[in-house]
Amino acid sequence: MAQYPHTKATLALMHSASVIPVLTIEDPKQGILLAKALVAGGLPVLEITLRTQKALAAIKAIADEVPGAIVGAGTVLEPAHIDASIKAGATFLVSPGTTPRLIVAACNAPIPFLPGIATATEAMHLMEHGFMAMKFFPAEAIGGAKALSSLAGPLADLRFCPTGGIDATKARAYLALKNVVCVGGSWMVPNAALAAGDYAQITALAKEAAMLGN
Fold it and tell me: N or C: which end of the chain has fewer CB within 10 A?
């Protein structure tokens, strides 16, 4: 059975930022400006979802052009995504869920992997492979902070990054839980601000988000 070797590195990554922006980027040039605004606001860990044709190009552009950015790939669905993301410059990987093939590939990957779970059964399956840090997704749709708090008793050793439907107010409730290290979300990147190129507003919202874990 494949065993995950990067638990310490994954936890260290999660502890490095209480909020991880989850970004869907259509234009790599815009992605550079967005990443600079978020890093300036104190949010250096950035998850770029593999939901657009330019996602890998955006990862490469940010990795090359934004000092201080810790760039990862999200929406990793298959082993091929792992190789492509690492080649583009991703330094961590996030999935919404896991399959047997993806678990094996994650265990063999050279960088931290944060696998998604929605149930205790899924979490226990990943524990058998050595995973102790997981993404709780889609957090709000599957019970929110109350549901995640309930997992802290029977699965006391696990640590989570809840993502999905979280805003600044809800983030506080999650971060107050003993089994939550960080949260993922996109509320600090409003569509209106992004469309207007108002990166100063995004930096201001990032600064507020960065303070949530204090």
Answer: C
Task: List the alpha helices (DSSP H) in 79-183.
Answer: 79-88, 100-108, 120-127, 144-151, 168-175
pLDDT in tens, 182-194: 999 999 999 999 9
Contact 172, 146 (CB under 8 A): no
For residue 48, give the amino acid letter.
Answer: I
Order the strands of the 159-162 sheet from edge to edge: 116-117, 133-136, 159-162
Name the phi and psi angles at 167, rounded to 5: -120, -175
* Rg for the chain, CA atoms, rounded: 16
Q: Which residues of the chain form beta strands (DSSP E)?
A: 19-23, 45-49, 70-74, 92-94, 113-114, 116-117, 133-136, 159-162, 183-185
Residue with tokens 């990943």: 126
As a whole number of angstroms, the distance between CA 70 and CA 112 comes to 12
What does pTM read for this prediction?
0.97
For residue 8, what are its two tokens?
Answer: 């310490």
Cis peptide before 138 (omega within 30 of 0): yes
How big is the chain, counted in residues?
214
Q: Report the chain's mean pLDDT, rounded to a whole number.
A: 97
Instruction: Tell me the catalytic residues.
Output: 47, 135
